[in-house]
Design a protein that fits this description.
230 residues, mainly beta, eleven-stranded antiparallel beta sheet, two-stranded antiparallel ribbon, globular
Length: 230
């Protein structure tokens, strides 16, 4: 149950903060390297140390990305892989009485090549200004489990600030999960923190906490999504 809830809590994060490819570069003019020497390397001839990027202008939403696969293993020899993609087909639909843009989300989690979790979903959002509305889709937890349809409706959303600065943090969104009968089966809360990465990149980390069918999922037990501005 915890794996199932954890994967559901991942679902909204990719739309908000995931590998952004070229999209992050446009606002990265707020450099952090120390240029106070004006090219001088000092009396010793040793160049000053390069500092990590401290801030960037927030790239425009939505942050979509092509298929990505992550792999890992543990000390017992078990192997894990997570495949995820989030692409915007450009179609519009009516969602909760509003004309919404859509993105297609696919997630697959495997343990020793066996299916742990599969999800296909359509994500709904407004573009100008950006506002995530929710998603609808289905999940399958493998081992002969039936496919389960669900919806997740965003109940609150706080836009990222105009500038992302290392050390900053704040709320992102809250959402409510419902089953195909319309019964509430879970809640999700996401927050973000910005951390240093390199002189040309910084990371936006999305942390999620969720309850799903009474199973509690703690912070940082889910997925850390990153956006990089090169």
């Amino acid at each position: 149950m915890k794996r199932f809830a954890a994967c559901l809590a991942i679902a909204l994060a990719p739309l908000l903060a995931a590998c952004s490819g070229g999209g992050g570069g446009g606002g990265s003019s707020a450099g952090s390297s120390d240029d106070s020497s004006n090219g001088s390397s000092g009396s010793s001839g040793t160049p000053p140390p390069t500092q990590n990027l401290a801030s960037i202008s927030t790239p425009p939403h939505p942050w979509t990305f092509p298929a990505t696969t992550l792999t890992a293993s543990d000390g017992s020899g078990n192997t894990y892989s997570l495949s995820i993609s989030n692409v915007n087909p450009g179609s519009t639909v009516t969602y909760d009485g509003q004309t919404a843009d859509t993105a297609v989300l696919a997630i697959g989690l495997f343990e020793n090549n066996a299916v742990v979790f599969l999800q296909d979903a359509t994500v709904y959002y407004l573009t100008n200004p950006f506002q995530p509305l929710g998603l609808s889709g289905s999940v399958n937890t493998g081992s002969g489990s039936p496919t389960a349809p669900y919806t997740a409706t965003v109940t609150s959303f706080t836009p990222f600030p105009a500038t992302l600065t290392v050390g900053s943090s704040g709320p992102v969104l809250s959402a409510t999960y419902k089953n195909s009968s319309g019964d509430v089966i879970g809640q999700l809360t996401e927050t973000y923190t910005v951390t240093a990465d390199s002189p040309t990149a910084l990371d936006v980390n999305i942390d999620a906490s969720a309850t799903f069918n009474d199973a509690a999922i703690g912070r940082r037990s889910l997925i850390r999504s990153q956006t990089r501005a090169a």
